[in-house]
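Action item from last meeting closed. Structure (121 res):
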């Protein structure tokens, strides 16, 4: 179980920053013409930090780990969508590289958090 606020978790802070960047980027052209992909990217980005928060607030480490796995899955979903957005020409490669690296870093941090919390189960 967490001893502090989910907002103090570095992984949550990074996930929030990533979501803000995805939102800002998806407001621009050509995303404004392609609502479906922009919406899916936003949902995946929001899901990462939301599931970290929900997991951290759960009463048991077992519950927390389940939500951290969901957050990790959402990070993979976002990476897939970023890749697609780049391949169809909506996202410049430089933006893809930056956001993909951030997503992978968050996934690595989540693996560590899962490992730490799972050891208490």
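Sequence:
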């Amino acid at each position: 179980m967490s001893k502090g606020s989910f907002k103090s978790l570095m992984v949550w802070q990074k996930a929030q920053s990533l979501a803000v960047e995805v939102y800002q980027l998806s407001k621009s052209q050509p995303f404004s013409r392609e609502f479906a992909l922009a919406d899916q990217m936003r949902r995946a980005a929001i899901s990462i930090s939301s599931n970290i928060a929900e997991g951290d607030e759960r009463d048991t480490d077992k519950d927390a780990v389940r939500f951290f796995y969901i957050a990790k899955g959402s990070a993979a979903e976002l990476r897939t969508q970023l890749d697609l957005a780049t391949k169809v020409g909506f996202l410049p490669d430089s933006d893809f590289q930056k956001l993909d690296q951030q997503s992978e870093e968050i996934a690595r941090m989540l693996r560590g958090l899962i490992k730490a919390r799972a050891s208490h189960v």
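Note appended to the action item: The two ends are 10 Å apart (CA to CA).
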